[in-house]
Amino acid sequence: MTPDKTGTATLTLLPPIDLVAPKVFLTASFAFG
Amino acid sequence: MGCQTGVIRTRVGYAGGVKKNPTYHDLGDHAETVQVDFDPAVVTFAELLDVFWGSHDATRPSWSRQYMSAVFYPDPEQERVAKQLKAKWEEQAERRLQTEILPATEFYLAEDYHQKYSLQNDRTLEREFRRMYPTFTDFVDSTAAARVNGYLYGCRSLADLRAELGSFGLSSEGGARLLDRVSRLHR
């Protein structure tokens, strides 16, 4: 929720898939330009 | 990469060189790179490597270091798996792969306009996504954005998209737009 200058708030609704991010993840990096 | 099952985040950037703070127009000795965060309980590094080698012809020499084929490993385990899989792909191709398997050095995030490129270039979908996230960083870090961007490149099938479309937070107009764009790719 992001408050604006007048004190009201704008709801930001995240997509469902963004709300279930796993706690453990790995990172890989690839170059294939 | 973005729409592979188990992929959480994709970010494009520059890696593999020593130049500090490279930019697209001043890349130095870096290569264009995609950094992929993934859930190892859902997809393995080996499976992502299969997607990587399946998506380009690594037997051909690259035009330049900017467009080289490379895997940057952060630990000995990824190094081992990458070397093992490379040997398997070479055996299947009956040729040497040009892919370099190198230790991961610093990854520099590319400029905003390179991130989620296909998605950012679709006005309808871009507008919907930017409304969902307070900042551009949140947008770049988004799993939904990574997946939608991947589908816009034609990865995976229309049936796969239909199965997970509801998890992307799109309006009915946005969902229809995405289905239309992707169905054209698969005609």
Q: Helix-strand pattern of chain A, N to C?
A: EEE
Give the CA-CA distance, first to last residue of chain B.
21 Å
Oligomeric state of the chains in view: heterodimer
Largest sheet strand order of chain A:
1-2
Helix content of chain B: 40-55%
Please describe the structure with a list of short key phrases separated by commas or semicolons.
heterodimer; A: 33 residues; mainly beta; two-stranded antiparallel ribbon; B: 187 residues; alpha+beta; Peptide Methionine Sulfoxide Reductase, Chain A; 2 domains; three-stranded antiparallel beta sheet; two-stranded parallel sheet; 8 helices
Describe this structure in words.
The complex is a heterodimer of chains A (33) and B (187). By secondary structure, chain A is mostly beta strands. Chain A has strands spanning 2-3, 9-10, 26-32. In chain A, strand 1 (2-3) and strand 2 form a beta hairpin. Chain A is elongated, with a radius of gyration of 17 Å. The N and C termini of chain A lie far apart (38 Å). The mean pLDDT of chain A is 75. Chain B has 187 residues and is α+β, with helices and mostly antiparallel strands. Chain B has 2 domains: 7-109, Peptide Methionine Sulfoxide Reductase, Chain A, CATH 3.30.1060.10; 115-185, no CATH class. Chain B is 42% helix and 15% strand. Chain B is built from 8 helices and 5 strands, in the order E-E-H-E-H-E-E-H-H-H-H-H-H. In chain B, strands 2-1-5 form a 3-stranded antiparallel sheet, covered by helices on one side. In chain B, strand 3 (69-73), helix 2 and strand 4 (100-103) form a beta-alpha-beta unit. The longest helix of chain B has 18 residues, at 76-93. The radius of gyration of chain B is 17 Å and the shape is globular. Chain B starts with 6 loop residues before the first strand and ends with a helix. The model of chain B has no long low-confidence stretch (mean pLDDT 95). The A-B interface holds A 2, 12-18, 21-22, 24-33 and B 1, 8, 15-16, 31-42, 45, 48, 52, 55-56, 58, 62, 66-72, 74, 78, 104, 107, 132-134, 142-144, 147, 164, 166-170.
